[in-house]
Specification:
Number of strands: 2
CATH topology of the largest domain: Helix Hairpins
Helix content: 55-70%
CATH superfamily of the largest domain: DnaJ domain
Oligomer: single chain
Radius of gyration: 24 Å
Bound molecules: zinc ion
Structural class: mainly alpha
CATH class of the largest domain: Mainly Alpha
Largest sheet: 2 strands, antiparallel
CATH architecture of the largest domain: Orthogonal Bundle
Strand order of the largest sheet: 1-2
């Protein structure tokens, strides 16, 4: 029979129960408020999907995301904690911050893709350091002697970025982590080229004025 008790304990732990910091009663890890005393709970280590109470999948329902963010944001609104103690106000502020971070990560496809890879990847993959497309864009940028040619490089880089995000999402949907990693490192490279283009363009514009 001791086995059964042990099993129950295990299930209790596995369901991720935590304890209210104030009244010490069990609360779900996802709970914002204690069901017993109603006190705001500290930020706990849960994933962004759980934090927003949405289904954990790569292709999310954007309307649902907005709706959940608004609803939870209202529950955590600063004015609701004005008459509370410093501890509760502090937890509420941290919860708002965590909620905003989760929302901003999931809202944007590229950030969501990065996050998805991070939580799903079974083993860290070495990313290739040489990337033909990025190298080519860099070469083009080196040759760009006027703002117009910079704009052309920027346009190509922008297209590559857009395409990269599509390929990334495809790879993530298929659980192809190696491909996702490769694509992500290409995206990083293209993003850095884009910021170099902006710099070069403003340098060239300044030179033209002198
Ligand atoms: Zn409590």
């Amino acid at each position: 029979m001791s086995n059964v008790v042990g099993m129950n304990d295990f299930i209790g732990l596995a369901s991720g129960n935590s304890y209210c910091w104030l009244c010490q009663k069990p609360v779900s890890t996802r709970a914002l408020f204690c069901p017993v005393c109603g006190t705001i709970q500290p930020v706990r280590d849960i994933d962004h999907f759980a934090r927003l109470g949405i289904e954990c999948r790569l292709d999310i329902d954007m309307d649902n995301l907005e709706k959940q963010y608004t609803t939870l944001g209202c529950m955590l609104a600063e004015e609701r904690f004005l008459i509370r103690g410093i501890g509760e106000r502090g937890h509420a502020a941290k919860q708002r911050e965590a909620l905003k971070d989760a929302y901003e990560t999931l809202r944007e496809p590229l950030r969501r893709g990065r996050y998805w890879l991070q939580i799903n990847e079974k083993e860290a993959e070495e990313t290739a350091d040489s990337n033909p497309l990025v190298a080519e864009l860099r070469r083009e940028l080196l040759d760009a002697a006027d703002p117009l040619r910079c704009d052309r490089v920027a346009q190509r880089a922008g297209q590559a970025l857009e395409q990269g995000v599509m390929i990334l999402m495809q790879a993530l949907r298929g659980g192809n982590w190696a491909e996702a990693n490769k694509t992500l490192s290409q995206i990083d490279g293209v993003e850095s080229v884009l910021s170099e283009v902006r710099e070069r363009r403003s340098d060239l514009t300044m030179q033209a004025r002198e």
